[in-house]
Amino acid sequence: GHSVGHWDGDTLVIDVVGFNEGSWLDPVGHPHTDMLHVIEKYSRPNKNTLHYEATIDDQGAYTSPWTVSWDNVWSPNGELAEYICQENNKYMSRLMDDFGNPIFGKKP
User: Which residues of 17-45 are buried (b: 16+ CB within 10 A; e: fewer)?
Assistant: First the structure.
């Protein structure tokens, strides 16, 4: 898709359109049409939390917009996993070893 971002106070808002037919909304493959419009929001409700929210609006696939959100909590001994949005998750194999274990972060 095509992304344009702007700040709304302390929240980074990213407006995304122009998705191609090869993309999915999530790992289970929820469909979309060429009318898909996603609004992503990133905010810091406190110094230890990064809040993510995405509103999906696709009148060709869904009867009304819907929103997903989650919090990423900072951990002094952890590492925030890199998230890459690309065609068919081709890059994922570069983030895993031969046994499917993440190659980033501390090892147990």
Answer: eebeeeeebeeeeeebeeebbbbebeeee
